[in-house]
Amino acid sequence: MNQTTINDAYKKEARERACMLITRWMYEAAIPFNAVTYPSFQPMIEAIGQYGVGMKGPTLHEVRVTNLKKELTLTKDLMKDHMVEWGKNGCLIMSDGWTDRKEKTLVNILVNCSKGTMFMQSIDASQ
């Protein structure tokens, strides 16, 4: 027979509070509910927990400049493997057209190979 310890009860309450605050933030920021299923979500939660009490979130500058540059570099590095594959075994260039909320016609350009599909750019084709 298992007894709930004080620590277990505290952790349950702390988790419920954290989840409620995360959920409230998602509502405020209009983040889609399925964002919690993204592969990057759980590692983010764990990194925050590992930091511990008192962690300050990223500043607007860190989000808009510093970390965006780092992500761009990581994305370019991921693309290198795909580009090598394109040269070895070829690739398929695909397009996907759609209309946004402002009635602009947009065309997404994607490249597919055995390593997967990569978005390359979006073109405004409404003119």
From TrEMBL:
Residues 58-126 form the DUF659 domain. It comes from the Eukaryota. InterPro entries: DUF659 (IPR007021). This is DUF659 domain-containing protein. It comes from Vitis vinifera (Grape).
